[in-house]
Every structure is written in C-alpha cells, then in structure tokens.
C-alpha cells in the first residue's frame, strides 16, 4: 500500500516521474569577498525549489578548518544541499557523489512529506517497519534513475583557482558521462564567476552532453574578486530564463502555425 501510494509522488505540482530536480553545484576554494551573503542567497534559492550543493577545494597545504572553507558548509546547509571539502585529486569522484547524494536526499524529503499525508500522522520513513522502509527506498532509487535532472555548475575562477581548473574540467566531463547513464533526462549548464561585466559568465548553455568543455576551459581567464552571493543569485535566475525561452519559442512557433 505504502509503495503504491509513494509512486504517485509529486514535485513542483508534477508527478515525480515527469518532474525535474534542479541543482546548483558551486565549486570554489575560498571565501566570498564582494556582494551579498552567499548563505542568505542560498536560502532564497532553496525556497524556489533549487538545491544548492557546494564543493570546497583544498590546497595541499590547507586543512579543512582553513579560513574561507567554513563558508562551504553554511551555504549548502542554507541551500538544503550537500557540502564536501576535498583535495583536488579527489574532485572527480566527489562531484559525482555530491550530485547523486543531493538528488537522493531531495527525493527522500519529498517521500517523507508524502508519507505524513498518507499515514495521517507525523511518521517519517525512518519510523516505518523494515519491510515497508525497504519498499520506499526501492521507489526512491527508481525515481533517482527516472526523474529529470538539471544541474547548473558554478565555477569559481578567481586567481587562486588557476591551477585547479584542469581538474574541474575532468570532473565535469566525468559527471556528464555518469548522469547520462541514467534513464531520466540530464541537462547541464556551466557558468564561471566572476564574469567580465556581470557576476557570472556563461561557458556552456543548457545541454545533455559536455563534449565541447575542453576547448571552453582552455580559454578561461582567472582573476578578480569572489562575488559568491551575487553569482548564486544570477545562477538562480538562469533556470527561469530557460523556461521563459521555451515558452517564447513555443508561442512563436504556435503563431507561425496559425498564420
């Protein structure tokens, strides 16, 4: 009964199987030093149904308590996402793991809310009998494979990230391969910050594959301040612009058909 009911889960007003999970993946190595507080912006983004995940990259001489990396956990916590601090050698596996973990935690959160409605009390998935809990986790795993996923990758390209960008590039190519092995549709976009005249600059528009990323990363120039808060705010707006473009294209196409 529980498993059957859970399969009708909805997210964003749509059945989960046809809904889309949205994530921002922030890759950075230091503390923001310009603009709004990034943790506060992350909370606003989470309220829009977009999870904010953060990966902090350490230098060989740094420790996890280094100044600036404490901000990583705070941003992810406010953004209802996952945070991880790693040395650059482990970045590739970490990017994949963080993206998948955030997806599963989002799905489990939706499942818990649905369970409370189904069972008519405050019971959560952890309080179910083992057999029913196992059934629910099967559904979560299945949804993780079949739901659509959109990930906007936000890469810190301030001066201190110069020697880390080749590793970031490799990690994102690996992420593309692993996410496209899913049944559900996966789409990516990549932005750097700071931009030339704006907080962020688009490197890759929404796409399902990242084959062209090598040539794009070769042209990136690093330097400048680290406006993490303004960059996150602009990243949030890119999801809305994508939907707006689709609507405009659809309306334009419809007008042509009618004409």
Nutshell version of this structure?
The chain has 259 residues and is an alpha/beta fold.
Fold blueprint:
Layout: H1 2-6, E1 10-11, E2 14-15, E3 20-28, H2 38-47, E4 50-58, H3 70-78, E5 83-87, H4 91-119, H5 130-146, E6 148-156, H6 165-179, E7 186-193, E8 201-207, H7 213-218, H8 228-258
Helix pairs in contact: 2-3, 2-8, 4-5, 4-6
Description:
- The chain has 259 residues and is an alpha/beta fold.
- The chain has one domain: von Willebrand factor, type A domain (Rossmann fold).
- It contains eight helices and eight strands, in the order H-E-E-E-H-E-H-E-H-H-E-H-E-E-H-H.
- The protein has helices at 2-6, 38-47, 70-78, 91-119, 130-146, 165-179, 213-218, 228-258, and strands spanning 10-11, 14-15, 20-28, 50-58, 83-87, 148-156, 186-193, 201-207.
- Strands 5-4-3-6-7-8 form a six-stranded mixed beta sheet, sandwiched between helices. The protein has a two-stranded antiparallel ribbon with strand order 1-2.
- A hairpin with a 7-residue loop joins strand 7 (186-193) and strand 8 (201-207).
- Helix 4 (91-119) crosses helix 5 (130-146).
- It is globular, with a radius of gyration of 19 Å.
- Residues 10-18 and 243-259 have low confidence and may be disordered.
């Amino acid at each position: 009964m529980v498993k059957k009911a859970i399969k009708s889960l909805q997210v964003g007003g749509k059945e989960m199987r046809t809904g889309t999970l949205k994530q921002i993946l922030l890759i950075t190595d230091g503390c923001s030093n310009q603009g709004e507080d990034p943790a506060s912006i992350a909370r606003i983004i989470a309220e829009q149904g977009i999870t904010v995940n953060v990966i902090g990259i350490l230098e060989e001489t740094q420790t996890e308590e280094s100044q600036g990396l404490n901000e990583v956990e705070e941003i992810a916590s406010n953004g209802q996402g996952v945070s991880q601090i790693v040395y650059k050698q482990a970045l590739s596996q970490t990017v994949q793991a963080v993206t998948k973990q955030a997806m599963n935690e989002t799905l489990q959160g939706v499942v818990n809310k649905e369970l409370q409605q189904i069972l008519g009390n405050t019971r959560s998935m952890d309080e179910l009998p083992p057999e029913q809990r196992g059934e629910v986790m099967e559904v979560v795993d299945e949804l993780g494979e079949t739901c659509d996923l959109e990930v906007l990758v936000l890469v810190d390209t301030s001066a201190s990230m110069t020697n880390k960008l080749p590793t970031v590039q490799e990690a994102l190519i690996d992420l593309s391969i692993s996410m496209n092995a899913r049944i559900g549709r996966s789409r990516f976009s990549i932005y750097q910050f700071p931009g030339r005249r704006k907080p962020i600059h688009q490197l890759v528009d929404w796409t399902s594959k990242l084959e062209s990323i090598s040539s794009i990363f070769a042209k990136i120039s690093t330097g400048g301040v680290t406006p993490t808060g303004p960059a996150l705010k602009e990243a949030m707006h890119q999801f809305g612009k994508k939907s707006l473009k689709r609507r405009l294209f659809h309306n334009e196409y419809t007008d042509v058909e009618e004409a």
